[in-house]
Amino acid sequence: MSSNEEARFSLFSKKKTQKIDKADLKIPVHLAVIMDGNGRWAKKRMLPRSAGHRAGADNLKNLCKNCGHYGIKYVTVYAFSTENWSRPESEVHTLMELFVEYFDRYDPELEQEGIRVRFTGDIKSLPENIQAVCKRAEEGSKHRTRMTLIVAFNYGGRREIVQAAQKLAQQVKEGKIKEEEITEELFAQNLYLPDVPDPDLIIRPSGEERTSNFLVWEGAYSELWFSDVLWPDFGMKELTEALEAYTKRDRRFGGLTKEKKE
Length: 262
Ligand code: FPP
Hints:
Oligomer: single chain
Mean pLDDT: 93
CATH class: Alpha Beta
Largest sheet: 6 strands, parallel
Radius of gyration: 21 Å
CATH topology: Undecaprenyl pyrophosphate synthetase
CATH architecture: 3-Layer(aba) Sandwich
Distance between the termini: 40 Å
Low-confidence stretches: 5-16
Structural class: alpha/beta
Strand order of the largest sheet: 3-4-2-1-5-6
Bound molecules: farnesyl diphosphate
Strand content: 5-15%
CATH superfamily: Decaprenyl diphosphate synthase-like
């Protein structure tokens, strides 16, 4: 290689591998995560799927700590979808059991980290004891302001949209609003958590590259980032990689970049 070529090559490889300084990372206000790969994590270790879900639930605690470290304000995690009811009864039971235990067990750590807990999903259709868990965790953490953890449970993006449409139809029927007053803004106000900003970044580990009915409305302009790592192994290294990738993204929301406008 000539010295000229060498210089060009080193410039090129530097650009490709260039690490972003921590201080220059762009931090999403709202990060959403599809906690996928628990079953495969367990299978690799010849463990039952329930062990994978336990490891996955444990890792949620790490995610909260790591997001807190970066100053992320909202973290939404997909814990149980409206479609997950079709899994074997024993697996559904494990997931419900984990959910019931989780917020009491980790409350001291959530408190220490200043994490408020909220839920999104068709909560009203869940068994009474699960609804009570949601209410207790929400009430008990209302005063915390450092970060909000939103747990999507019995959540389906399409169901959320249908339920918003039903609420609006009811308001039209009662004469509270006129049909023509329904705008995107009004529609969004009738979703489960209208006060929460849309997710900036959605992460899915485990090698699957789809969003599986997660935050269908809210995620319309979210950046997507995929990783092959299985959810229970998804740690600080992977989160940092996702934030580095997010920092390099040019979010245009259907418009033009600043340079192209000029
Ligand atoms: C998908 O992995 C994961 C789920 C359906 C459940 C996610 C739940 C947790 C991480 C724990 C519960 C959370 C709380 C808040 C208590 P999969 O089982 O489909 O994995 P696979 O694709 O490898 O089989």
